[in-house]
Amino acid sequence: MSRELFAGREGVEEVRSRTDIVSVISEYVSLRKAGKNFVGLCPFHQERTPSFTVSPDRQMFYCFGCGKGGDVFSFLMMKENLTFGEALRVLADRVGVKLSRMAAETGSAQKLQEMRKALEWAEEKFRSVLGSDLGKECMEYLRSRGLTQEVISRFRLGYAPPFWDFLLRAAHNDGISEEALAEAGLLTRRSGGGFYDRFRDRVIFPIWDGMGRVVGFAGRVLKEGEPKYLNSPDTALFHKGKHWYALHLAREGIRRTGRAVVMEGYMDVIACHQYGLDNAVAGMGTALTADQARALFLLGSEVVLAYDSDAAGMQAVERAITVFREAGGRVKVASFEEGKDPDEYIRSRGRETFERELEKARPDIMFLYGKYARECGGDRVAIKEKIVPVLGSLESKVEMGEFVKEIASAMGVLEGDLRADVESYQKKNAKTRYEYKKSENRNTTQHGVTGRPGIAGNSIIRAGSTTEQSTTEYGARAKRSTVSGEGLLNRQIAGREKAEQGLVRALLEEPDLAVEVRECIAPEMVKDPVYRRTLEIIFELVEKGVEKKSRERPGIKPATLLNFVNDSIDDEEARARIAALLVGEELPGPRERLVRDYVKTIKKARSLELEVELKKCEASRDVERQALLLKEIQELRRGLG
Predict the structure, then answer these.
(1) 177, 182, 184, 185: CA torsion to nearest 10
(2) pLDDT tens digit sequence for 450-485
(3) Closest of 139, 178, 185 to residue 158, by C-alpha
(4) pLDDT, mean of residues 41-69
(5) What is the pTM of this model?
(6) How far apart are CA 475 and CA 472, in angstroms?
(7) What pLDDT digit, counting tens, does each position of 207-243 carry?
(8) N or C of the chain: less Cβ packing under 10 Å?
(9) Three-state secondary structure along 546-614?
(10) What is each CA distance from 249 to 254, 368, 433, in whole angstroms?
């Protein structure tokens, strides 16, 4: 379904015109100004230096590392796993546009909508029970943990009563599908058929995606029982390794302070927010993932781990350090006096004292040294055996040198001796040692499994791999050709590719030039399928403009044409390639002269291509085809002057 069919072209255009792509993407990525554009670390793959570019003039984004690109709708669709219809609704609500109509989505998109409806319905049910007589004991528990009504409402806490069929019965009354509840992880299938409620007699914590939409739940037992915390299972909307608890509430605090505070428990996070520390988030009760770690690094420059002080908490910190290092960053670790959990500590000691502990947080490697020193009881040889592999795993020699110096002083050994042990370890383990580092271009999303042509040389790079193909599909065919004239044809390939790219970009920037271009070149002459389709769309809009204005130059605005192209192309990869054209370097010269040169280059390449085919026809004695080819070649040569 084309984009305009969802709400009409006017509806899509109004939403897009009121939306600032820089503002939207800034909620996910820390961007900095770079000339006319903004740059930042790509949210779709792992990288060392920023290659993700956002153009406020074009309202487009493109990553020169992984090839993801498009407009603001494309960004939300990829980042939040939305359909176009969902992205349109989200942005319409954001900018206050009331869409007069919305086309119904079908298939999997409709199924996701039913799941979202079921989750929102369940959240309201749990909240209403908390405020009823059934929820009195749960409310007393929350009060005993020091929570105010304001924070209970802000985090939309609820209660699942101790019944096997509370949601099941309520769903029948409210017209909610059992299948939708089951797909959303709220019901469990019985082995003999039928369903029962997953959450019973538990405090309910809604879990949201990055946009604040409920995608799952966590339930904590009120009394005795296992497990203490029960999360929704992974579903089409909820993945434990992707989400942070309360990230949508903490995002602004993280951006403002430049720091994310990572905690183990939901109650820890809620306590921090209640005391004004609005940059706290928590994992989903399972091992952290590199995707989660990168999401925080994209928002702020510092991550502090504030875990429980018991042995289990310290082990969790050690595992988290490895994950954050693998994700390409480093963290600090806060510790709390008297062995209290973070939420106990902030409630008993207050915000200022808690913040001082965050300020005193130790770098990750120094935390590991302290942990090993305690475990080894001060035995320097035993400590060395644990810390040397960690130091030897650091990729940065400067960083390693700083930690060697600090740890040697703490251990009471010579810095040179510890450095020698680290270097010896590195030599012995040169082939097998694990380094705390990341791939320059590793894809960390479910997107990007197809090839994408690069803007500079049209090479095809497979996301998530290091394989490169130096020619395009049609270039490869020409290279394999054995007929006469292949050398000359091959020499035209690079120029033709650049000409096709340049022509499309020039027309997108100055649409009225297409009036003359469409008279002297046909889209079929363009080899690249994306640029060919784009040229067809440009000519289509220009033709409408000429007819409407009844004059040669219809005065089409570049933004109007670009939006028309984006909405007429269904393939996200194709949109990304158009974005790549527009956020790249400026074209080298006046557009009219460049367009003439580009058209001439494309025509020359087409003529040579036809000559090669003509020789094949002569060999096969295909007289009818020869006549057609000769006619086209003669027309091209006349056009070249």
Answers:
(1) 150
(2) 333 333 333 222 233 332 333 334 334 433 443 445
(3) 139
(4) 93
(5) 0.77
(6) 5
(7) 999 889 999 999 999 887 889 999 999 999 999 999 9
(8) C
(9) HHHHCCCCCCCCHHHHHHHHHHHCCCHHHHHHHHHHHHCCCCCCCHHHHHHHHHHHHHHHHHHHHHHHH
(10) 10, 31, 40
pLDDT, tens digit, 9 for 90 and up, residues 155-198? 999 999 999 999 999 999 999 999 999 999 999 999 888 999 99
d(CA 224, CA 555): 73
Closest CA to 257 of 237, 275, 277: 277
C-alpha 129/C-alpha 138 separation (Å) is 10
Tokens 């940059």 correspond to 279
8-state DSSP, 528: S
**Angle 486-509/572-583 helices, nearest 10 degrees?**
80
CA–CA dist 208, 400 (Å, integer): 39
* Helices 311-326 & 290-297 angle (0-180, nearest 10): 70
Q: Measured between alpha carbons, how far is 389 from 382 in angstroms, rounded to an integer?
A: 12
- How many residues comprise the chain? 641
Alpha-carbon distances, residue 455 vs 87, 271, 384, 425, 472 (angstroms): 27, 49, 50, 43, 12
Per-residue pLDDT, averaged over 378-394, amounts to 94
Beta carbons within 10 angstroms of residue 135's beta carbon:
22
Element (H, E) at 214: strand 214-221
Predicted pLDDT at 171: 94
Using CB atoms within 10 A of its CB, is residue 400 exposed (0-12), middle (13-18) or buried (19+)?
A: buried
Contact 411, 418 (CB under 8 A): yes
CA distance 322 to 164: 41
- Burial of 329 by CB count in 10 Å (0-12 exposed, 13-18 middle, 19+ buried)? middle
Using CB atoms within 10 Å of the CB of residue 87, give its burial: 0 to 12 exposed, 13 to 18 middle, 19+ buried: buried
Distance CA 435, CA 438 (A): 8
Residues 6+ apart with CB under 8 A from 8: 100, 101
Q: What is the residue-wise DSSP string for 390-443?
A: HHHTBS-HHHHHHHHHHHHHHHTS-HHHHHHHHHHHHHHTTTT---B---TT-B
Strand ranges in 378-450 using DSSP code E only, listed in sequence order: none
pLDDT for 263-311, tens place per residue? 999 999 999 999 999 999 999 988 899 999 999 999 988 999 999 988 8
Which pair of tokens denotes residue 175? Answer: 């017209």
CB 200 within 8 A of CB 225: no
> Which pLDDT tens digit goes with each residue over 396-440?
999 999 999 999 999 999 999 999 999 999 998 876 555 554 444
Residue that is written with structure tokens 């694990």 in the block: 434
N-term to C-term CA, the chain:
44
Q: In terms of Cα–Cα distance, which of 56, 142, 47, 2 is closest to 583? A: 56
- The amino acid at residue 219 is G
* DSSP 3-state of 301: coil
The C-alpha atoms of residue 513 and residue 592 are separated, in whole angstroms, by 7
Q: For residue 462, what pLDDT is reported? A: 26
Between helices 591-620 and 623-640, what is the axis angle to 10°? 160
User: Torsions phi, psi of 443, nearest 5?
Assistant: -75, 130
Tell me which long-range contacts 400-405 makes (C-beta under 8 A, separation of at least 24). 403/363, 403/365, 403/366
281 close to 300: Cβ distance less than 8 angstroms: no
Which of helix, strand or coil describes residue 460? strand
Identity (one letter) of the amino acid at 401?
G
Report angle CA 244, 250, 252 to the nearest 5 degrees.
135
